[in-house]
Amino acid sequence: MDSSSSDSVLPVVAVSFQLPLIDFSDKTLKPGSSKWDEVKIDVRKALEDYGCFEASFDKVSLELKKSVFEAVEELFKLPVQTRQRNVSSKPYHGYLSHNLYQSFGIDDANVFDKVNDFTRQLWPDHGNKSISETIHQFSEKLSELEVMVRRMIMESFGIQRYIDEHLNSTNYILRLMEYTTPLDADDEEESKLGLRAHTDKNMITILHQHQVEGLEVKTKDEKWIKVKPSQDSFIVMVGDSLCALLNGRVFSPYHRVMLTGKKTRYSTGLFSVPKTGVTIDSPDELVDEEHPRLFKPYDYNDFLHFFSTEAGRSAQSALHAFAAL
Ligand SMILES: O=C(O)CCC(=O)C(=O)O
Ligand SMILES: [Fe+2]
């Protein structure tokens, strides 16, 4: 979400790489269990080193993923005037379209009535019950993975006493994305930029790419790596606001989408986003001599607003330009 550019010129070629793969499907994975403590260590390490990891999570079944992408294809077949009826009171939360990219945005996609509001925007007479159910189920189940990751990371940094307050301070938006390469594209081998390099501005993002590759992530040592699509897993990624909340202890990586070939690419992203009026401020527990406070407290909406300005878009890091001390 929230694309900005760190690359003004087109990009160095990415190399294939396997991100840390962490299993969240174990039935004994409950707070307090030994499995939980084991996984927590891996989560923290991956988020410190890469700002992201691959998560296998079988609560979202293959069948449910299949239904989601059938729904996604159906939604993108709607006429453009209909797609544009997906609007939101929040900036950038509705239907978006630029160059090869377009996406729908569904606020509070883990709440059935809200998903119903979305399908009613597109089918005003009676919505679309089956699509609403599919999207709701997917988001609700996937949000369980997102909550586990946030619990683990907060426990791991010794700030568990803020967990409930923190979890209550966010809600979710689900984005359904389509990337199309024009049929008359001259060179099939040449990569085309589907989504410019950016860091996400929210807390945590959970991505899933359906069959067609394209997602690339920049490592701390500035190498671009390709994240292969996998039908069994999701990519969990840190956004700038989690980085700020944790006083820079985790890394929010630049990432982008590069398209090769002519296949249409579909992906989904579940974003946990601070609610309106929430201030992001790192707890004192995370500040000491070795870790001086890095960011001033900020209102998430002010940060987004800064990001929509030329200064925000052109900054190497919008978070640092906006909030660094
Ligand atoms: O389509 C993708 O895989 C990535 C999308 C993304 O980075 C975003 O929406 O912020
Ligand atoms: Fe993103």
UniProtKB/TrEMBL annotation:
Gene3D superfamilies: B-lactam Antibiotic, Isopenicillin N Synthase, Chain. The keyword GTP-binding does not apply. This is Fe2OG dioxygenase domain-containing protein. Belongs to the iron/ascorbate-dependent oxidoreductase family. It comes from Capsella rubella. Residues 169-274 form the Fe2OG dioxygenase domain. The keyword Metal-binding applies. PANTHER family: 2-OXOGLUTARATE (2OG) AND FE(II)-DEPENDENT OXYGENASE SUPERFAMILY PROTEIN-RELATED. One of its GO terms (molecular function) is metal ion binding. Probable 2-oxoglutarate-dependent dioxygenase that may be involved in glucosinolates biosynthesis. May play a role in the production of aliphatic glucosinolates. Keywords: Dioxygenase, Iron, Metal-binding, Oxidoreductase. Pfam families: 2OG-FeII_Oxy, DIOX_N.
